[in-house]
Amino acid sequence: MKNKEIGILRQASRIALKNKKWVLLSSFMDLLFFFVYGFATAPIYRKLVEYINVIGSFAGEAIQTATRESRSMSTILLDPAIKSYFYDMILLLMILLMAVYVLYCLFQAFNWKIALQLTSKKIRYLDYLKRFAVINLLWFALFTAYYLLGFAIDIRKAIISAVMQTSPSSTLNIIMTFFLIIIAYFAVISYVKISLKKSFFIGKTKIRQLLPSVLIIAIYILVLNIILALLTQINVILAIVIGLILLIPAMTFARIYISLIIKKV
Amino acid sequence: MAKKGDIFLIIIILIIIIVLAWVIANLDFLFPTPAAKTLIDAVA
């Protein structure tokens, strides 16, 4: 690790220690975000699972009917009785996406605003929120594409395993992970620069300076994940408590650190 | 002092939150769970 990164890490620690109240508030908002997110999305997920179960059980029946009566699958799946449930499912997915988007923007704009404020970039919350919401339209669209593609890949894998009796290659999963890392990388830069154009430019031209810092955070989260996975086997409550203690303040610290790094490149 | 645009934005945000909260609270009413058998019978 270069001296520069260590220096910025120290500076970020100093800022965090000097502004305990803001760090505490930001951590509290992260915690609140997780709770509100859970409360808001759990009923939608539950509903979606119910719909998937019903349509899934129907799909089994539909295959048998199609084979028996020589009807095509599409004719059956486009039957008015079924079609409405598919539309409802799409509507539910859109509600889920909207709830996630609104909550993410409201809470994370607040936390990024705190990080920027601590690294001496004054901006009003509502002004920041407006730009944050616009920027996130692109990231959310890409993120949704990532999930839909992931879903399609999972289905493909399941079909290959069932029909060919062989395990499919993981190349597509690796490409998808890479795609997710790229989205996250540019998204984080755009939250500091509050401009898509600038974030693409800096992300591309300063990748050598920015990548080590992003890797430090990624490694921390990866190690934390491994520790938590091991702890879950011992005690779930202990894993949750330690996870919250190690993750929530680290998120605030990571935001301060990233703001500093991007400001300095 | 709050700008006119700020008040407008806050009202929009509040409306979105209230509508979303209402939809989530009334999911069972808005999206009644279909019974698998009814669905199969309807198509068969």
Order of SSEs of chain B:
HHH
Would you identify the regions of chain A where 5 or more consecutive residues have pLDDT less than 50? none
How many beta strands in the DSSP annotation of chain B?
Answer: 0
The largest interface is:
A-B, 30 and 22 residues
Total strands of chain A: the figure is 0
Q: Helix/strand/pairing class of chain A, anyone?
A: mainly alpha
Rg measurement of chain B, Å:
20 Å
The biggest beta sheet of chain B reads: none
Content of β-strand of chain A: under 5%
- Helix coverage percent of residues of chain A? over 70%
What does the model show?
The complex is a heterodimer of chains A (265) and B (44). Chain A has 265 residues and is an all-alpha fold. Chain A has one domain (3-264). Chain A has nine helices and no strands. Chain B has one domain (4-43). Helices cover 77% and strands 0% of the residues of chain B. The mean pLDDT of chain B is 81. The chains are: A mainly alpha (265), B mainly alpha (44). At the A-B interface, helix 2, helix 4 and helix 5 of A face helix 1 and helix 3 of B.
Write a concise synopsis of the structure shown.
Chain A is mostly helical and 265 residues long.
Write the topology of this structure:
The complex is a heterodimer of chains A (265) and B (44).
Chain A: H1 3-18, H2 20-69, H3 73-77, H4 80-118, H5 125-164, H6 171-193, H7 196-205, H8 207-234, H9 236-264
Chain B: H1 4-25, H2 27-30, H3 36-43
Which features does this protein show?
heterodimer; A: 265 residues; B: 44 residues; mainly alpha
